[in-house]
What we know:
Layout (H helix, E strand, L loop, with lengths): L1 H21 L7 H28 L7 H27 L2 H23 L5 H18 L23 H6 L5 H9 L4 H8 L14 H15 L18 H15 L3 E6 L25 E8 L2 H4 L5 H27 L4 E4 L8 H7 L3 E3 L5 E3 L6 E8 L12 H10 L1 H5 L23 H11 L5 H5 L8 H12 L1 H15 L17
Antiparallel strand pairs: 1-2, 2-6, 3-6, 4-5
Helix pairs in contact: 1-2, 2-3, 3-4, 8-16, 9-12, 14-19, 18-19
Amino acid sequence: MATLALLWESSSSMIFCFRSVKNLPPVENEGVGGIIIGVKSFGFSVKVLYFCILPLLDFNLNGKPMTYLLLSMGALSLVGMLWLHLESRRENEKTAKMRSVWGAVLAPVFFGLLAWLPLPPMIPILVGLTTLMVVLLLVVPTGRPGGFENCFPAERFDERTVMFSRAALKPDTDYFDRYYRDHPQHRECDDKFRRLPGLGSPDAGKYEPLSFAAAAASFEAVEGLSGLIEGEPAATTLEVSPEVATAFIKGWLKKLGAVSSGITVLKDEHMYTVKGRGENWGQSIERTHRFAIAFSVEMDHRQMGTAPQGPTMMESAEQYMQAGAIATQVAVFIRNLGWGSEAHIDANYKVICPLVARDAGLGEIGRMGLLMTAELGPRVRLGVITTDLPVNTDKAGFDPAVLHFCSICKKCAEICPPGAIPKGGREGPEGNKRWRLDSESCYTYWCATGTDCGQCVRVCPYSHPNTLMHNLVRRGIKNSAIFRHFALKMDDLLYGRKPKPMVPASWLPNRH
């Protein structure tokens, strides 16, 4: 009867716990939220283990250190799976939410049975020691992976060859005729995407009127910033120390909504050679400033999780606008101090933002050709301000751990509908190796669906939210080659090798 009473008490506690979790309010600081959930889960786990499971199994723990060890492992696995379940609920990750429930049941049962069953003493000891060894191998740093060199562009790029520039060319115009006279190899594939509905078209396969109209509104707002991206500095120059200017700008960028920021010396290879969009099409681009300030803004995890549906393009466009607004505001501020500056925003780039951001220490360029930031992976939009204002620079973001993880992961390449992301290794001469995307296939798919896809960003293991749990995984990925392989297998197990798109938030249209 005592055991039944304890079982009833523990069952009641379990029901109360999950009801409480279901009604948890949103936590603004995800890291603090994760700690709170972890502490609550541990207390709940200890109660269930020691007041329910142990009495049912009639344990005698006196003088059994291995039993203590196995039960502790069971309790920790229960805590970990409950934590994962709670985080998955908050992130709307349905597959991980269900699989974590199975993990919360099976892992403690496994360790409990090892401690309870009358097995030869060596079996529980070997299992316990093996588990400890595996954990140690996962957390002990293994050094920087070899075979990955810090590569730089061998030559500068002509912006006219970028797909967005080619898409903006209008038939029967001088620009159109000049471009295809100089680049006849592009004519056939470009005619192919021009026969399709196009990005944002009502005739496209993923068309949904509200989200498409919202995306168009964001792009129109970005166009409205074009008159502020450059201009003459004030007549009077305010002298500010590099330390003060750097601290102020980085602090202000964070306040304005930037997730990360960094500064680098502006190099020729950061710049396009020729302007490919707007009134200055065909004009050469020269480096006129000393420094480049790069920053990232977050794209919402839930909306990007709907890729390739309309809410993804809506979010992508909104963050282009956000990055543009921040960059423009900072550029105007610097000019008001009497220093030259220019904002580089959507449709008005003179620099290649991922190259600038990498050299400014924001991350490393991954398999999909996007910057893999430390906090959010590729789930960001970038902004750049070039300036003559004296500022302190940051260390470049070369990270061989990211390159190694991208080399073994390949989830983005496997889910890419047109196969535009390569599945092989980096190619090119020494010092200029990179994964080379098929940008024509990628953009052609966009023109068929009407959205900017985003499935590569959606499935990337680095794209998980910036929370304590995921940041612990990111730290392990950075420190250990063994952990990188383990993290990839766990990501496949919990979220799926080719996870399905999320259901949009209730206020967003759902075409699923």
